[in-house]
Amino acid sequence: MKHSLFLLGILTMVFIVAACPVQAFTAKNLDITVQENGDGVINFDYDLTWYENIVVLARIADPGAELKKALISQFNKPVEITGMSGNHLQLSVKEFASRQDKNGIVTIVTPGLSFKEAQKVLDQYWFAKFISPDFSPAVTRIHFPDGAVEEFDNLDTIPQVRHVISSSGV
Q: In whole angstroms, what is the distance from residue 88 CA to residue 44 CA?
């Protein structure tokens, strides 16, 4: 009888978790630092629910590997995970931004970023129907070599950014 009640309790909990979508992965901050040569260093902070932490700990999904794969697909450029801990990920992207130096004026152009494709990647996993993620970062900042910063709030598509500086400022 004790085992039956325990089993019934476990099954009820599983049903509740499975039947109710939970707020899931939440993108917090995305900081992109464009280096003088156009390479980019990306720092990404996010929150995971207890459910997602279990999925990550069980190695069913790897947020770092998935983001790396998405960036390679989007940019067609080498991406390297340079750090990962808890809810933080750091990546390096070769030739992230284009750089043009003409007559002492440097123009740096960053590519646009779209987080809309992230849902398609997530849909490939069995647990996707149980969560409702928010892939658009609360704050996205793009830092340029001269100290200028472009900031965007809660956008699922970050536009291409063109930044002009004098070569003496770089």
A: 6
In angstroms, what is the C-alpha Rg of the chain? Answer: 20
Range of the domain at 37: 21-97+114-156
Whether 168 is in a domain gets the answer: no
pLDDT digits (tens, 9 = 90+) for 109-150: 999 988 877 667 667 766 666 666 777 888 999 999 999 999
Is the CB of residue 107 less than 8 Å from the CB of residue 162? yes
Task: Write the CB contacts of 39 (distance below 8 Å, at least 6 apart in sequence).
Answer: 92, 93, 94, 95, 96
List % helix, strand, coil for the chain (3-state, nearest 5): 30, 40, 30
Give the residue among 151, 45, 42 at the shortest CA–CA distance from 96.
42
Please state the separation of Cα 78 from the chain's center in Å.
16
H helix count then E strand count, the chain: 4, 12
